[in-house]
Specification:
Blueprint (H helix, E strand, L loop, with lengths): L1 H7 L9 H11 L3 E2 L9 E2 L1 H20 L3 E2 L5 E3 H4 L3 H7 L4 E6 L2 E9 L4 H11 L8 E10 L14 E12 L2 H22 L5 E4 L11 E8 L4 E12 L1 H5 L3 E3 L5 E3 L1 E7 L2 H10 L16 E5 L6 H15 L5 E3 L6 H10 L4 E5 L1 H6 L1 E6 L5 E5 L3 H26 L1 E3 L3 H9 L3 E6 L3 H11 L2 E8 L14 E8 L1
Parallel strand pairs: 3-7, 11-23, 15-16, 15-17, 20-21
Antiparallel strand pairs: 1-2, 4-6, 5-6, 7-8, 8-14, 9-10, 10-11, 11-14, 12-13, 17-18, 18-19, 21-23, 22-23
Helix pairs in contact: 3-7
Bound molecules: zinc ion.
The site of zinc ion has 7 residues, from loops.
Length: about 475
């Protein structure tokens, strides 16, 4: 058993083999156990749950501030409901799990297991919405969704049971109100990724070929992984009236006219945590942003036989003082100090406090930042305020560091040769593009990368393929 444990600490270098590093770290740190015998389904372990709970709590608070009410819809959806919106069924029919039997009986009405909840929720919307006074209607839930993935599965990234899937669904009087909601949602996600998770991203409009099935358009949040691949960590869709026509979601407006509602939906999953792990982690393990770390500070007493009681007493009293304002843990296990350092370092706990005879003698404490290993010695009296500032600084420093990394991963390429080189160097190529899908396909083929999406408007630029005027900047790279 001991051998097994020691061996497990020998992490692969992140630079050398990112994918292997990632797979090791989610297991060793106790985020998931991958040994569950159903492909694409993982056991979320206590440390993983604590992380996801913290992430979800912050997100749900922001959604509630936006007026979204929390609900919980059933896992089962009548199969016939999935078929009501023609694009939606086309997009999902390959991925859906079907329930055809219950006990020994064949079901009269076959059911599906939700791959996402549009077709569960919208029949209910049509019962709830009658008048313009019922609008906007904004709800969300955090649940598991199930998709039969045929590509290689990866913990927290591509799963057949997608856990902690947070989906919001809204209905509005008109297109303008729905557009405002798309902006609200994008603001919530931007704040969540930047301020809570310290994750940089690009907001891209998806090409029509990659739009959510049934949506008018899709905006996605793409993070760039250390291996240069893009990972979609959040999406916002304007559904227009596609679903409200299919599900008869109508209301009577101020002039007594009957109208279809305009809808949006937006979602985030465990990929947010995967991005935190991938972008911030290093060769020694996780590096967690203070906002979501299950433990923000660990106190480690250095126990010498002679002063054992005094050191333990001081550690306990510091713990009692800090626990009022922080998530703090006192590690008084009877274990070699080196192995304790290891445990907390690999788990990415932002601050480590050591208390030994030296510290007690001088009435100081020694604090080490996980992010950069910087050591600080401070007067024991001012510890609370000092730590509060320190955690804030770490959160900022992490975002800044990640932003530098993100910037370095995007190459503004002026021709296809440069773009191809960027992708070969495991980076994103940002290119001028004229909006023709034919050009997109040609560029994709010639530089051997996927067309991820496009965003900002620009002037006086020419498409790198056809040389016609190019309004957009498009991003190309490899993706998950
Ligand atoms: Zn073009």
């Amino acid at each position: 058993m001991k051998d097994e444990k020691e061996k497990s600490y020998a992490l692969t270098e992140k630079k050398e083999n990112f994918s292997e590093w990632y797979n090791q770290i989610v297991r060793i740190t106790g985020i998931i156990d991958h040994r569950y015998p159903v492909k694409g389904c993982e056991v979320l372990m206590p440390f993983g749950i604590e992380l996801l709970d913290n992430i979800t709590e912050k997100l749900e608070k922001m959604l509630k501030d936006n007026g979204n009410k929390k609900v919980l819809f059933p896992l089962f959806i009548p199969e016939s409901f999935l078929r009501k919106e023609s694009e939606h069924i086309k997009g999902f029919e390959e991925e859906v799990y079907h329930v055809t039997h219950a006990g020994k009986n064949k079901l009269m009405e076959p059911l599906i297991i939700r791959p996402t909840s549009e077709t569960a929720m919208y029949p209910m919307f049509s019962l709830w919405i009658r008048s313009h006074k019922d609008l906007p209607l904004k709800i969300f839930q955090t649940v598991s969704v199930f998709r039969y993935e045929t590509k290689m599965t990866k913990p927290l990234v591509r799963m057949r049971e997608v856990m902690f899937f947070n989906e919001s669904h809204t209905a509005h009087k008109n297109w303008e109100d729905a557009e405002t909601e798309v902006k609200n949602a994008a603001k919530i996600y931007s704040d969540h990724f930047a301020n809570n998770l310290a994750i940089p991203f690009i907001i891209n409009k998806r090409p029509i070929t990659d739009t959510f099935p049934g949506a008018v358009y899709t905006k996605a949040f793409d993070a760039i992984m250390p291996d240069g691949k893009s990972m979609q960590i959040g999406t916002v869709h304007n559904l227009g009236d596609n679903f409200s026509k299919a599900f008869n979601i109508e209301y009577i407006d101020e002039n007594e006219e009957k109208k279809h509602v305009i809808q949006t939906c937006y979602g985030i999953s465990t990929r947010a945590l995967a991005a935190v792990i991938a972008i911030h982690g290093d060769d020694k393990g996780l590096v967690l942003p203070p906002q979501i770390a299950p433990v923000q500070i660990v106190i480690i007493p250095v126990i010498f036989q002679k002063e054992k009681n005094r050191i333990l007493h001081e550690s306990q009293s510091l713990y009692n003082k800090l626990k009022k304002n922080f998530r703090v843990h006192l590690d008084d296990r009877d274990q070699p100090i080196g192995s304790k350092f290891y445990d907390w370092e690999i788990k990415g706990i932002p601050l480590r406090i050591v208390i030994g005879p030296k510290e007690i003698e001088k009435n100081v404490i020694t604090i080490t930042r996980r992010l950069d290993n910087e050591k600080l010695t401070i007067d024991e009296k001012n510890v609370g305020k000092f730590i509060e500032n320190l955690l804030e600084n770490i959160q900022h420093d992490m975002l800044r560091k990640a932003q530098e990394y993100h910037k370095d991963k995007i190459i503004h390429a002026s021709d296809k040769g440069e773009a191809k080189q960027a992708v070969e160097e495991k980076k994103f190529a940002a290119v001028s593009w004229c909006e023709s899908m034919e050009c997109a396909e040609t560029i994709e083929k010639e530089i051997d990368a996927s067309f991820i999406g496009y965003n900002s408007k620009q002037q006086d630029a020419k498409c790198i393929n056809c040389k016609k005027a190019a309004e957009h900047i498009a991003y190309l790279g490899r993706k998950y």
